[in-house]
């Protein structure tokens, strides 16, 4: 186990993102078993390392390790936990548990047999934690780590302290929010354009010149490794799912015709619908439904978007449309935080109450003029008025 401590210390020393990820303040760290799901590249490792480096002392003997370490070729996870506890360890941070074959059974044993140990683990967003071979639903407290918001991007890039604002607070106090942002950011619209291009994943701070190749590599690893390890899908099947993703990217926002798409790609209907669910769980696309429609395992989504605007720039390339970028940004910032559906009048309805229509600075209120609790979200403006709100303010929610 000594080599794991050496590696852990080396990785902690190399941590270069000092601004804490938003989820650190939201997790109930008193729980003994905590699971954090998130897309590959979203910053799960950084989150664990920040918890150790900024909040735990050496006396608490924290240990970070990834479950794809070669150590686990000859050692078990339960064996590591037992030895760690005997040596006085109290906080065990386990990265990428889905890469370890018996992860759920051994985490259950650790929880039941080692009550002095706090375990925090991360997994691919594809993994459905409660569907492992052992039920962790009554033991593990689960969280989802989203990609960086516009707010996080600003704070990390420029070492700022832009506060977060609740969705309804922005609707009711948009001028105050805009002025608060303006205090710290001179040109918020210009920064917003940069965020749309390369602000979603923390590795953008390593340099933007190679950002899209890295992002495409991340997508490939999600589909060829994560999907295969979590869903037990053969490599050739994962290649088919990649083909589906490219088809969506070239047409998003995409209204799927399942029969035609199945025929075009050579998929069965069930394989196609299951692949869409996998891409949604992988945080690569966002499936949309109307509020009244039930969402079963084989329910056809009514519209598909890529999950964030950086993916549009990387995958769609020449087929960029400003309207798609705006709608994708808004949907992404609300995903996992608020309920968001399609609506006949307007673009989206949030929490089954607030209708939003999204557009450029010349967008009119005509489409929502007869609706209650309806708002126009405009790009390219710094301050709005009445029910017209700058779109980028909704990047300050986390």
From TrEMBL:
Occurrences of domain AAA (ranges): 31-154
SUPFAM superfamilies for the chain: P-loop containing nucleoside triphosphate hydrolases
InterPro entries in UniProt: AAA_14 (IPR041682), P-loop_NTPase (IPR027417)
Name by which UniProt lists this protein: AAA family ATPase
């Amino acid at each position: 186990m000594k080599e794991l401590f050496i590696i852990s210390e080396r990785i902690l020393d190399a941590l270069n993102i000092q601004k804490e990820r938003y989820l650190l303040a939201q997790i109930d760290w008193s729980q003994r078993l905590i699971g954090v799901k998130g897309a590959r590249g979203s910053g799960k490792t950084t989150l664990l390392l920040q918890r150790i480096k900024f909040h735990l002392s050496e006396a608490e003997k924290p240990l970070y390790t990834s479950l794809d370490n070669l150590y686990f070729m000859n050692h078990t996870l339960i064996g590591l936990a037992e030895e760690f506890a005997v040596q006085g360890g109290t906080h065990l941070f386990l990265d990428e548990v889905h890469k370890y074959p018996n992860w759920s059974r051994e985490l259950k044993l650790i929880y039941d047999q080692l009550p002095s140990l706090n375990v925090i683990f991360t997994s691919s967003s594809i993994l459905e934690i409660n569907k492992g071979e052992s039920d962790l639903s009554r033991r593990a407290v689960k969280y989802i780590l989203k990609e960086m918001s516009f707010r996080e991007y600003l704070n990390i890039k420029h070492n700022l302290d832009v506060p977060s604002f609740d969705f309804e607070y922005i609707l009711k106090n948009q001028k105050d929010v805009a002025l608060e942002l303006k205090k710290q950011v001179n040109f918020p619209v210009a920064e917003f354009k940069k965020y749309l291009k390369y602000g979603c994943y923390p590795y953008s701070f390593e340099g933007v010149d190679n950002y899209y190749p890295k992002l495409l590599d991340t997508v490939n690893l999600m589909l060829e490794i994560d999907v295969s390890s979590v869903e037990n899908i053969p490599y050739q099947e994962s290649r088919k799912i990649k083909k589906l993703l490219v088809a969506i990217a070239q047409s998003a926002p995409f209204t799927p015709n399942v029969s035609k798409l199945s025929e075009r790609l050579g998929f069965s209907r069930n394989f196609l619908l299951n692949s869409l669910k996998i891409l949604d769980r992988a945080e690569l696309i966002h499936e949309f439904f109307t509020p009244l429609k039930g969402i079963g395992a084989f329910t056809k989504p009514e519209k598909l978007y890529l999950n964030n605007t950086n993916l549009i720039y990387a995958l769609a390339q020449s087929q960029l449309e400003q309207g798609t970028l705006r709608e994708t940004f808004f949907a992404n910032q609300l995903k996992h935080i608020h309920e968001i559906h399609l609506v006949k009048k307007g673009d989206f309805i949030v929490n089954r109450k607030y209708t939003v229509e999204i557009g450029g600075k010349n967008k009119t209120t005509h489409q929502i003029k007869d609706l209650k609790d309806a708002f126009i979200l405009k790009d390219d403006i710094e301050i709005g008025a009445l029910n017209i709100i700058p779109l980028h303010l909704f990047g300050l929610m986390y």
